[in-house]
Prior knowledge:
This is MFS transporter. By secondary structure, the chain is an all-alpha fold.
Amino acid sequence: MKFAFLKLNQVILVIIFAQFIFTMAVSLSAPLFAIFVVRDIGAAAAAVGFASAVYWAMKSILQLPIARYLDKNHGEIDDYYSLLAGITITMTGVFLFYFAAELWHIFAIQALIAIGDAFAIPPLYAIFTRHIDSGAEGFEWALQSSFSFGAGGAIGGVLSGILVGLVGIRPLFLVNGTLMLVGLIVLVFLRPYIRPKVPSPAQRVFIEQKRV
Protein backbone atom coordinates (compact mmCIF):
# COMPACT_ATOMS: atom_id res chain seq x y z
CA MET A 1 0.00 0.00 0.00
CA LYS A 2 1.43 3.33 -1.05
CA PHE A 3 1.36 6.28 1.32
CA ALA A 4 -0.78 9.04 -0.16
CA PHE A 5 1.14 11.82 1.54
CA LEU A 6 4.21 10.97 -0.55
CA LYS A 7 2.33 12.22 -3.61
CA LEU A 8 1.47 15.63 -2.16
CA ASN A 9 2.85 18.66 -3.95
CA GLN A 10 5.48 20.80 -2.25
CA VAL A 11 3.15 23.70 -1.44
CA ILE A 12 0.72 21.49 0.47
CA LEU A 13 3.55 19.75 2.33
CA VAL A 14 5.19 23.02 3.36
CA ILE A 15 1.92 24.57 4.55
CA ILE A 16 0.86 21.48 6.50
CA PHE A 17 4.24 21.24 8.22
CA ALA A 18 4.33 24.98 8.98
CA GLN A 19 0.81 24.85 10.43
CA PHE A 20 1.86 21.88 12.56
CA ILE A 21 4.62 24.02 14.07
CA PHE A 22 2.31 27.01 14.57
CA THR A 23 -0.35 24.88 16.26
CA MET A 24 2.21 23.26 18.51
CA ALA A 25 3.52 26.72 19.42
CA VAL A 26 0.09 28.10 20.28
CA SER A 27 -0.80 24.99 22.27
CA LEU A 28 2.15 25.58 24.57
CA SER A 29 0.66 28.71 26.08
CA ALA A 30 -3.05 28.63 25.22
CA PRO A 31 -4.07 26.15 27.98
CA LEU A 32 -2.33 28.34 30.57
CA PHE A 33 -3.36 31.77 29.30
CA ALA A 34 -6.14 32.24 31.84
CA ILE A 35 -3.84 31.30 34.71
CA PHE A 36 -1.22 33.72 33.37
CA VAL A 37 -3.67 36.63 33.26
CA VAL A 38 -5.12 35.96 36.72
CA ARG A 39 -1.99 34.90 38.60
CA ASP A 40 0.89 36.70 36.89
CA ILE A 41 -0.91 39.87 35.80
CA GLY A 42 -3.23 39.96 38.81
CA ALA A 43 -6.40 40.61 36.80
CA ALA A 44 -9.90 39.34 37.50
CA ALA A 45 -11.05 36.17 35.78
CA ALA A 46 -13.48 38.21 33.69
CA ALA A 47 -10.52 39.92 32.03
CA VAL A 48 -9.64 36.66 30.30
CA GLY A 49 -12.96 36.70 28.49
CA PHE A 50 -12.56 40.33 27.49
CA ALA A 51 -9.04 39.65 26.21
CA SER A 52 -10.39 36.82 24.08
CA ALA A 53 -13.16 39.08 22.80
CA VAL A 54 -10.64 41.74 21.78
CA TYR A 55 -8.76 39.22 19.67
CA TRP A 56 -11.74 37.61 17.97
CA ALA A 57 -13.62 40.84 17.31
CA MET A 58 -10.63 42.63 15.78
CA LYS A 59 -9.47 39.64 13.73
CA SER A 60 -12.96 38.92 12.40
CA ILE A 61 -13.49 42.52 11.33
CA LEU A 62 -10.08 43.12 9.77
CA GLN A 63 -9.59 39.88 7.85
CA LEU A 64 -12.65 40.39 5.64
CA PRO A 65 -11.43 43.56 3.85
CA ILE A 66 -7.88 42.18 3.79
CA ALA A 67 -9.08 38.98 2.13
CA ARG A 68 -11.18 40.96 -0.35
CA TYR A 69 -8.20 43.11 -1.27
CA LEU A 70 -5.94 40.10 -1.76
CA ASP A 71 -8.57 38.40 -3.93
CA LYS A 72 -8.66 41.42 -6.25
CA ASN A 73 -4.94 41.21 -6.96
CA HIS A 74 -4.11 38.49 -9.46
CA GLY A 75 -1.27 36.15 -8.65
CA GLU A 76 -0.06 34.98 -5.26
CA ILE A 77 2.89 37.23 -4.50
CA ASP A 78 0.72 39.64 -2.52
CA ASP A 79 -0.80 36.71 -0.61
CA TYR A 80 2.68 35.39 0.14
CA TYR A 81 4.01 38.66 1.55
CA SER A 82 0.80 39.26 3.51
CA LEU A 83 1.25 35.79 5.03
CA LEU A 84 4.85 36.44 6.07
CA ALA A 85 4.07 39.91 7.40
CA GLY A 86 1.10 38.65 9.38
CA ILE A 87 3.02 35.83 11.02
CA THR A 88 5.84 38.23 11.87
CA ILE A 89 3.35 40.54 13.61
CA THR A 90 1.76 37.64 15.48
CA MET A 91 5.16 36.31 16.52
CA THR A 92 6.12 39.74 17.85
CA GLY A 93 2.95 39.82 19.93
CA VAL A 94 3.68 36.40 21.40
CA PHE A 95 7.17 37.47 22.46
CA LEU A 96 5.71 40.61 24.06
CA PHE A 97 3.60 38.49 26.42
CA TYR A 98 6.82 37.66 28.24
CA PHE A 99 7.20 41.33 29.19
CA ALA A 100 3.51 42.03 29.98
CA ALA A 101 2.93 43.46 33.45
CA GLU A 102 -0.41 45.29 33.25
CA LEU A 103 -3.86 44.29 32.06
CA TRP A 104 -3.81 46.87 29.28
CA HIS A 105 -0.66 45.18 27.99
CA ILE A 106 -2.68 41.98 27.54
CA PHE A 107 -5.42 43.78 25.63
CA ALA A 108 -2.90 45.61 23.43
CA ILE A 109 -0.99 42.42 22.64
CA GLN A 110 -4.21 40.57 21.87
CA ALA A 111 -5.09 43.34 19.42
CA LEU A 112 -1.64 43.13 17.83
CA ILE A 113 -1.91 39.35 17.42
CA ALA A 114 -5.38 39.80 15.91
CA ILE A 115 -3.93 42.17 13.30
CA GLY A 116 -1.20 39.66 12.49
CA ASP A 117 -3.63 36.77 12.13
CA ALA A 118 -5.94 38.89 9.98
CA PHE A 119 -3.09 39.37 7.51
CA ALA A 120 -1.86 35.76 7.72
CA ILE A 121 -4.87 33.46 7.77
CA PRO A 122 -6.76 34.50 4.58
CA PRO A 123 -3.72 34.17 2.28
CA LEU A 124 -2.65 30.93 3.95
CA TYR A 125 -5.96 29.28 3.16
CA ALA A 126 -6.08 30.89 -0.29
CA ILE A 127 -2.68 29.47 -1.27
CA PHE A 128 -3.57 26.06 0.18
CA THR A 129 -6.84 26.00 -1.77
CA ARG A 130 -5.24 26.98 -5.08
CA HIS A 131 -2.54 24.31 -4.85
CA ILE A 132 -4.59 21.43 -3.44
CA ASP A 133 -4.17 18.29 -5.54
CA SER A 134 -7.08 17.38 -7.77
CA GLY A 135 -8.71 14.17 -6.63
CA ALA A 136 -7.15 14.39 -3.17
CA GLU A 137 -9.06 17.35 -1.78
CA GLY A 138 -10.71 15.46 1.06
CA PHE A 139 -7.51 13.69 2.08
CA GLU A 140 -5.41 16.86 2.08
CA TRP A 141 -7.93 18.85 4.13
CA ALA A 142 -8.17 15.88 6.51
CA LEU A 143 -4.38 15.65 6.70
CA GLN A 144 -4.25 19.32 7.62
CA SER A 145 -6.85 18.74 10.34
CA SER A 146 -5.27 15.54 11.68
CA PHE A 147 -1.59 16.41 11.47
CA SER A 148 -1.35 20.20 11.54
CA PHE A 149 -4.07 20.80 14.11
CA GLY A 150 -4.58 17.41 15.78
CA ALA A 151 -0.99 16.25 16.21
CA GLY A 152 0.32 19.78 16.65
CA GLY A 153 -2.23 20.54 19.35
CA ALA A 154 -1.65 17.26 21.16
CA ILE A 155 2.13 17.56 21.21
CA GLY A 156 1.94 21.21 22.20
CA GLY A 157 -0.43 20.39 25.04
CA VAL A 158 1.84 17.66 26.38
CA LEU A 159 4.90 19.91 26.18
CA SER A 160 2.95 22.68 27.89
CA GLY A 161 2.17 20.42 30.84
CA ILE A 162 5.79 19.33 31.11
CA LEU A 163 7.48 22.70 30.62
CA VAL A 164 5.22 24.71 32.92
CA GLY A 165 6.46 22.60 35.83
CA LEU A 166 10.06 23.20 34.83
CA VAL A 167 10.21 26.86 33.81
CA GLY A 168 6.83 28.39 34.68
CA ILE A 169 4.25 30.04 32.45
CA ARG A 170 5.96 33.23 31.31
CA PRO A 171 8.98 31.59 29.62
CA LEU A 172 6.59 29.46 27.57
CA PHE A 173 5.82 32.55 25.50
CA LEU A 174 9.48 32.70 24.48
CA VAL A 175 9.33 29.06 23.39
CA ASN A 176 6.06 29.79 21.60
CA GLY A 177 7.57 32.72 19.71
CA THR A 178 10.70 30.78 18.83
CA LEU A 179 8.63 27.95 17.34
CA MET A 180 6.66 30.50 15.33
CA LEU A 181 9.96 31.81 13.98
CA VAL A 182 10.81 28.27 12.88
CA GLY A 183 7.42 28.00 11.16
CA LEU A 184 8.04 31.33 9.44
CA ILE A 185 11.37 30.06 8.12
CA VAL A 186 9.62 26.94 6.81
CA LEU A 187 7.20 29.12 4.84
CA VAL A 188 10.12 30.79 3.07
CA PHE A 189 10.42 27.54 1.10
CA LEU A 190 7.07 28.37 -0.53
CA ARG A 191 8.62 31.20 -2.52
CA PRO A 192 9.68 29.19 -5.62
CA TYR A 193 6.12 27.87 -5.99
CA ILE A 194 4.29 31.19 -5.60
CA ARG A 195 2.60 32.31 -8.78
CA PRO A 196 3.70 35.77 -9.95
CA LYS A 197 1.26 38.63 -10.18
CA VAL A 198 -0.41 38.88 -13.58
CA PRO A 199 -2.58 41.62 -15.08
CA SER A 200 -6.30 41.42 -14.40
CA PRO A 201 -8.61 40.77 -17.39
CA ALA A 202 -9.44 44.49 -17.61
CA GLN A 203 -5.76 45.41 -17.56
CA ARG A 204 -5.00 42.87 -20.29
CA VAL A 205 -7.68 44.40 -22.51
CA PHE A 206 -6.21 47.85 -21.92
CA ILE A 207 -2.72 46.59 -22.78
CA GLU A 208 -3.96 44.97 -25.98
CA GLN A 209 -5.76 48.18 -26.97
CA LYS A 210 -2.55 50.15 -26.49
CA ARG A 211 -0.68 47.68 -28.69
CA VAL A 212 -3.27 48.13 -31.45
